[in-house]
Amino acid sequence: xxxxxxxxxxxxxxxxxxxxxxxxxxxxxxxxxxxxxxxxxxxxxxxxxxxxxxxxxxxxxxxxxxxxxxxxxxxxxxxxxxxxxxxxxxxxxxxxxxxxxxxxxxxxxxxxxxxxxxxxxxxxxxxxxxxxx
Length: 133
Hints:
By secondary structure, this protein is mainly α. Helix content is 62%, strand content 3%. The longest helix is centred in the N-terminal third of the chain and has 36 residues, at 7-42.
């Protein structure tokens, strides 16, 4: 038989990390701005904290309105489960700062190495698209 040994423990965790990376990519490039706007409308003025449930609902609504949603329900649940929630007791317990969260969504391009940031700012290909509009 083919004994995989220690790889068994690695499998699911690696799969979840791969899935989360894909979800973060979609969130970063497709949903970050509209979801941010939606959450800002759903929270009191000046408040940048919300519950995971509100975040999940907002993301689900956006995903559904994208026609063939880019994320599965399971992917959205997985993302929500990894949110870093406030633990201090009080009215913000179980909330998280979504502005901070969106700010932390830096996509690491493993293929491009260190020059990803410069390309994003100098934007070779992106400029061509804008001139077409």
